[in-house]
Amino acid sequence: MARTTKMTDEPDIADFDFPRILAAVADPVRMSILKQLAGAEEALSCGAIELPIKASTATHHFTALRQAGVLHQYYIGTSRMNLLRIEDMEQAYPGFLPSVIAALEANSHK
Asked: Which GO molecular function annotation, any one, does this entry have (predicted)?
């Protein structure tokens, strides 16, 4: 099945807002989402990401990451797929997202 276009509230690179990005990645649940997506070889559906919260609450966290520009979401059939916008983030804020991911991984080994 073909990938659909981006969600309508996903910002273009020129519209990234750094304080909003910082707020989005600072939440512990969203940190878990980032870490799992960073370790994946391909896009993951929302249901494939293990979170200790209800689906409706998870939707809120995915939305916050998408609206901040950290996450790209698209549909394959009825599955909402998730990818980190690594290249876009690198263009806007070089080194930021890899540094966040490295810190999350280092912190999980403590």
From this structure: DNA-binding transcription factor activity
